Zn(2)-C6 fungal-type domain-containing protein
Amino acid sequence: MESLEIQKSKHPCGICAKRKVKCDRLIPCTNCVKRGFEKECLERSVEGKIDEHAVLKLWQSYEYWVTDIGLFKSQEVDSTNTFVDLKEEVDECQYWCEFLTREISFQLLDHCVERLGCLHFGCLSDISDLYLLLEEFWQRRDDANGTNVVFSVDDHYSNALLWSLFALAVYYMPLELLSSVFTKKPSTHLYADVDSDLWTERDQLQLSQCFTNCAVIQLHEAKFLANPEVRLLQVYVILSATGYPHREVSASNALLLLCFNVAKLCHVDDFRPLITDSTAMRLTKITCEKIWYSLCSCDYLQSGPRKPTVFNTEISSLLQHAAYLDDLPNTDVYQSEDSFEALYWKILSLDRDLNQYLIKGTKPPLKTLDAIQRQTDIFTRKITSSEDSASLASDFARFLVSFLLNTISWKLHKMYFIYFDITNGLAKSVHYTKNLVALVVKNIKNRRNILFNKHPIVIQSFARIAVFYAFYEMVTGSVEIRDLNLDLKEMLQNLSNVLQPQLSGLFYLISRFRLLKTLWESMESDSFGNILEHPAMIILQNDINTFSQQALQRPSMIRGSTRLLMKRKAPQDQTAVEDGDTVFNSVVAEFESQYAIDYLTRRNREGDEF
């Protein structure tokens, strides 16, 4: 005969917690047996056993909707307060054209070619053409001096390409070099509050944004909708490295979709070599391949509810080829890619393979995670054994690839930990976090390479990492994670202010979790039948709902009415709120009113404090 063992729970049952009565924590508890709620108590006890694991699963939704969509891919737009003056924008572009001197323009182009090659070499067939274009730019300026010369579509496209490179150079240029190039600040309202000629990172960001706007205005003057051209793709690829997609979410998404149509129209996605290709055709296809991979990288990084139409999925997953490589042991899986753009996309596609489970909210198969682990090992071997490869010809390219690989490894082991409770999953995620911090700190110490940290992928990756560990420290109180968070905070404070406003938004999220930790500790989780009913957890679920409900909004067809929101089911774990617990309601409402999550959608955060 089997021996009967009395089962006891670590937490009060959900029914006793809701009734605010003492529970003996038996399964089922004595109170519920007396009141005839034995079945309900057993069901809630089963839920309680998985609650702590469910908290980590909740994080996956939070990471996608708040850290990714809310912080980087949402923008608060009020069409009623927007005054459109196209003439003012054209006049501003003209002001910057007159502000720029021939000497400064060549210095900016030199910096782009010498230090930022991996960000734009791939989308251009011949770098020497850039200097010819710049000479032609100044020749047109001289010819148009004092006359009303009408520029052609080709002229405007060339101007847009050059101004995108100027914006790129200003964005990444060290402040000391920027001060020597621009000895005087522009006399515009953007710099009216600064008396000295000393450049700050805030000034640098504003100047880069002005040059970016100049490039976009030049595209409008080329009437790019009526005159599709491959230079539109080149301009977009270059601007995407400056954080433009995060600053102008809607405009950037619309422009990227137009780039896709132009790429199809110009057969940029058809770069398969043929034996009948001429030399010129082979060279053209090589450039087309690089542009296509770069566009697919942009498309994936911008995908979300604000841009539901994606085209990067036209390139299949690397994981589909894993079995093929296993069947052919003579195949050299460590062979280097011919270009940085191809290597970067292949590594980024592994992130896509992981990210699909955040979007769907489903559990990834263990064999999929193992396959991604094998692929990351292959790429790690590639970048460590190919110092002189064409795809990693610069320090910047090597940094981006190493940083991206460590980011994917971090996300991979975090998912091992959350979904499969792999014992060393958390430890390995911490290991890769420290690797990422070391890469950034190395650039900070080496002043020559500090510009690498300004790449948008840096802030995107650390946003996920820093907020996750702030959350994990809140629910566990881990001393190790607390120390890691202090290191992350110190490192983030040393990042460049050109990463604004996302950097300020990240600090806001982290500080918000510190306050949530106080709330978490002040109300013991043991007093709740289900840990997901804790006020801190309800606040996090409300955060998720804030951004996920935006994806359900539909425009009203009735003039003057607000947007329509499709009906959404209330979270199942919000029973305490539904039962009318006034204390519970006030705690959640007070916190959300003081530290509103919709702060992330306000784009002008530079002057805010936390």
